[in-house]
Design goal:
184 residues; alpha+beta; NADH Oxidase; four-stranded antiparallel β-sheet; 6 helices; binds flavin mononucleotide
Length: 184
């Protein structure tokens, strides 16, 4: 917990729009709340990806292969989300702000802080994951966490001690094609 609070301290250094701090982080460690979050996560993940996962597994088995590891890894998280020791829920207070049109300043006032948190926990020896699928059940989560009505969730960051030494640079095929010279 000390590392998490320290990392959230660094997160507070992230930029914030309109000279006001709109980012809020809810740190969830209570086992009952985590279990409920995990159950919502499993339900919405299965609704979105369950059939796709089964099809991918069947197709892979037909070829004598394993389903893609990123899909299995996401499925593993879905099955175990409730067992993550800490969930950090990154929120933004939209009070007084229209949710129509340009929302860049609003979301930009929380997402860099959430990413700063992830980098900071990593440097402190923990691991976290950026997830958003739980927002398919945002209303239920908001009730569970007693969020004020004006507060929206930007990301849910399960955080844990990593097992093993498996860190390596993320695979980003053809990243150079995403960098544009002067015009797209
Ligand atoms: C906006 C956004 C939302 C995401 N939501 C989820 C999610 O709900 N569940 C999940 O398993 N992965 C989600 N991911 C993907 C993971 O955070 C991660 O990027 C992915 O597993 C690939 O791993 P890598 O970044 O280490 O290559 C999301 C990523 C982004 C950027």
């Amino acid at each position: 917990m000390e590392s998490i609070l320290r990392a959230l301290g660094y997160a507070g250094q992230a930029p914030t729009g309109g000279a006001s701090i709109r980012a809020h982080f809810v740190v969830v460690t209570d086992p009952g709340t985590r279990a409920e979050l995990g159950e919502h996560y499993r339900r919405v993940w299965n609704a979105r990806y369950g059939e796709f996962l089964e099809a991918a597994r069947s197709e892979a088995a037909r070829r004598g292969e394993k389903a893609p590891s990123d899909l299995e890894s996401a499925a593993h998280l879905a099955a175990n989300m409730g067992r993550m020791p800490v969930h950090v829920v990154a929120c933004v207070d939209t009070a007084g702000r229209s949710m129509d049109g340009n929302q860049a300043s609003l979301w930009g006032s929380v997402l860099p802080a959430a990413w700063s948190y992830m980098l900071a926990v990593r440097s402190l020896g923990l691991a976290s994951a950026w997830t958003t699928v739980l927002l398919d059940a945002e209303q239920e989560v908001a009730e569970l966490l007693e969020l004020p009505e004006s507060v929206r969730i930007g990301a849910v960051l399960p955080t844990a001690h990593p097992l093993g030494e498996g860190f390596r640079p993320a695979r980003r095929d053809n990243w150079a094609a995403h960098i544009h010279d002067e015009r797209w």
